[in-house]
Amino acid sequence: MPSAIPNTSLPRFKRRQVIQILALFSLPFGCTPKAEEEGKGQPSVLCTTTMIHDLAKIIAGGNFEIHGMMKPGEDPHIYELKPHDTVLIGKVDLVLMNGLHLESQVGHVVDEKARGKVVRLAEDQRIIPLGGEAGNGAPDPHCWFAPGYYKIYAEKARDAFIELDPANAVTYEQRTDAYKKEIDEIDAWGKEAFRAIPESRRIMVTSHDAFQYFGKAFGIEVAAVGGISTEGDTISPQNRVHLEELVRERGARALFIESSVPGAYNSIVRKIAESTGAKVGGVLHSDSLGDPESGADTYLSMLRHNLTTVIEALK
Q1: What is the 3-state composition of the chain as percent helix, strand, coil, each rounded to the nearest 5?
Q2: H/E run at residue 21
Q3: DSSP assigned state of 49
Q4: What pLDDT, on a 0 to 100 scale, did the predictor assign at position 40?
């Protein structure tokens, strides 16, 4: 007991140690102040795509336990859930996903298994979905290629983090504001660069129809070999003939392959380039970020990479 400690006979640093030891014994058995604090744990979040994973790491920082479902180069249209994905869906406090059926094999499992909050970042009244190049009415989920829409992604993620961790609301708001400024800087740079390219040259052909928002944001006409989804999509001979005619008639200077689509799509792009005399202008990152060596392993670097690749090819 504290009264049994002869305070006057102990050096000051030893008296402090004894008091600290007695304080520990006053806690429930097996607990220390640090252990009690750590027992609360951090809120956890599961992000479906690599772009969303990057976004969450920037805004949530070290305040959340952040899990990424997909790896660089994986196609969310055809991604098949792994057993540990299903476990995480049922455990985390928050699932951040794109929505608009981008993660076609994942959405129904999230609806069934998720116990925490689910936020579909592209499903927002401020985002007006396009219907894809074919105009078939299916919602185009590639909204992140419009920088203005991606800022909405950031705001919705921020709000979800604040709801789970209101004590750090100011931190999340500041990080989001800084991130949006970086997006605006790249957006403004890209638009200025495209204004220097004659409008007649601003046409691009890609492997699948992922760049309509990109085209609308930067004033480029976009055509594609495949549709807005690579799931079950077939590449018709008629579409290839149509694209060859388009390239010849419009004098399209470059076609682009993509890093995360099935090889058949890129193969058709190369064949169209060979038959028309156009060039393959480079590799674009569409539905996934690249690995660290790619120079496109964050949303910001991916956007700048794609812009630079298209601008240089269309000059």
Answers
A1: 50, 10, 35
A2: helix 12-25
A3: S
A4: 53
